[in-house]
Amino acid sequence: MNFNINKNSQSQYQGYLHTPVLWKNTVFGLKQFEFSTEKETVFNESIPENLRLGKCVERFVSSELQQNKEITILIENIQVQNEKITVGEIDCILKHNNRPIHLEIIYKFYLFNDSIGTTEIEHWIGPNRNDTLLKKLTKLKEKQLPLLYNPLTKPLLDNLSLKADEVQQVVCFKAQLFVPYQKEVEFMELNKACINGFYITISEISQFTDCKFFIPSKINWLLEVRTQVKWLNYNLFSEKVTSIINEKTSPLCWIKFPNGNIQKFFVVWWS
Question: What is the pTM of this model?
Fold first, then answer.
């Protein structure tokens, strides 16, 4: 069984809520948005089944913010355009205790590969190697956040009675991190609490023949692992995951060990 996003939107939301921020202090000069939540919030909206994961997370962030009495959302997901050409998009401008804030929202899955780059930041890459933490931080720093100061954004700020230099810029950057199987990784800048599992290559799955497996659809990657799913035996899993790998796609999977322990892991097509 694969979960229906509409029936499981609260479970998805819980997965988002329980994902830690990727760093606690400052990375690349970027600060995380810090606010207190008195009680566990709920998500009551309906989500279209075809909504991309990133847009889904934006809805979750918006819902969490709206349930905070200290926060007033002024605008969300506003495109800045030069005539008919989109220059960029501002995720959110809000007021926190009456202080104006420009918030950019990011939720990522990164794998540790120390053969890439020389620094902690450079070692974290996307499951399909077409995305990196360094690339995303650079885009935030050089393109997304500076959009606030673009002359084309001024009319938008004027409508809110705001000036760009009065607006604090922060991010909500959450991530699930995955490390090579049975390998210790040292953390200096990033939040070790973001480790959510491990990854292996397709050639390494044979060491798990006595385990059971589940392959969630991508929109359900947010979910926390649970026991009540239709587990696959090793042979069926191997067949399914090999088919996915042949498409040069690295799937997120769940594994249930013989002792009952359940973990998330990626099977990657590269080595």
Answer: 0.94
